[in-house]
Design goal:
Blueprint: E1 26-31, H1 34-46, E2 54-58, H2 59-66, H3 74-84, H4 89-101, E3 105-110, H5 114-126, E4 130-135, E5 140-142, E6 151-153, E7 157-162, H6 166-179, E8 183-189, H7 190-198, E9 205-211, H8 213-222, E10 232-239, E11 242-248, H9 250-254, H10 263-278
Antiparallel strand pairs: 1-3, 1-4, 2-3, 4-5, 6-7, 7-11, 8-9, 9-10, 10-11
Helix pairs in contact: 6-10
């Protein structure tokens, strides 16, 4: 059985001082086996991480300690979770809750500076940690797990390199976008269009116009002209033996409107787009 008692201490529930509001300055990773957790903890301690900087969540006890709904921590807990459910944090909360329910371990490591962050990431990766994320003070960063499946944040979007062929990636991104509430309104085949209009050969490359109706409605209520920036573009193109998928940074795109009321919705859009890409 994965969830061994040594990693699942039961703490008092309902104590607001123990409520995990937001894991600021922490690296989080999922591990599938108790042996991997044990090895990771030993490696972290050898690298001068203290017991207080390392925490493990697993099973029902792990769910209770995190309290994903906030119900166990009264009005304040439910209020905090309701706010987080409106932002990109919801994606991560749902992801970690699912992993705990499947019997896996969530290992959380305090990393107050970039050096400790890099050291923690390296150790977690070397012990088969996956779904790595870093929660900074004001941002959440998905951490790539390998060089062959690499993710990057660019000035105008978020991208991921995959070993899967182009056609498979297009099919899968459509599916993951749908799970995040997006429909694909348009699809532009750049290879076909460039051949048709310019008679030039180009790599396989499609632009998908993705739209999440409730979120589109929310921004249009704030600014009718924001339709000039819709829908959100997601691209897929051939790269070597694999493919690349990328999505627009909605927050930066909508920032040109100069309307601070759009910030929260754009962060939610970014969280959903990133989740669609990460779940390929």
């Amino acid at each position: 059985m994965k969830t061994q008692l040594e990693f699942c201490p039961t703490e008092a529930i309902g104590n607001q001082t123990n409520f995990l509001r937001y894991p600021a300055n922490k690296v989080l990773a999922i591990l599938n086996e108790a042996s991997g957790v044990r090895s990771a903890i030993n490696s972290l301690k050898a690298a001068d991480f203290t017991d207080e900087e390392i925490d493990v969540f697993c099973g029902q006890d792990g769910e209770k300690r995190i309290d994903f709904s906030g119900d166990e921590h009264g009005f304040w807990g439910k209020f905090i979770r309701s706010i987080q459910n409106l932002s990109a944090e919801r994606i991560y909360l749902e992801k970690y809750q699912k992993e705990l329910q499947e019997g896996n371990f969530l290992l959380m490591v305090q990393a107050e500076n970039s050096e400790k962050k890099e050291r923690a990431v390296e150790i977690l990766k070397s012990n088969n940690g996956h779904r790595l994320s870093y929660f900074g003070t004001w941002h959440i960063e998905g951490i790539p797990e390998s060089q062959t499946e690499r993710s990057d944040t660019h000035s105008y979007g978020y991208r991921r390199e995959l070993e899967t062929p182009f056609e498979e990636t297009v099919t899968r991104i459509r599916e993951t976008l749908q799970k995040e509430g997006f429909g694909v309104l348009t699809e532009i085949d750049m290879k076909e269009k460039l051949k048709e209009k310019l008679d030039v050969d180009f790599r396989k490359y499609v632009i998908l116009g993705a739209c999440n109706p409730p979120l589109a409605h929310a921004v249009l209520k704030e600014d009718l002209d924001i339709g000039l920036l819709l829908p959100c573009n997601v691209i897929v193109y051939e790269s070597g033996k694999g493919s690349v998928v990328a999505a627009i940074d909605a927050k930066k795109m909508l920032s040109v409107a100069g309307n601070p009321q759009l910030a929260s919705t754009s962060e939610t859009v970014n969280g959903k787009l990133r989740s669609a890409i990460e779940n390929l």
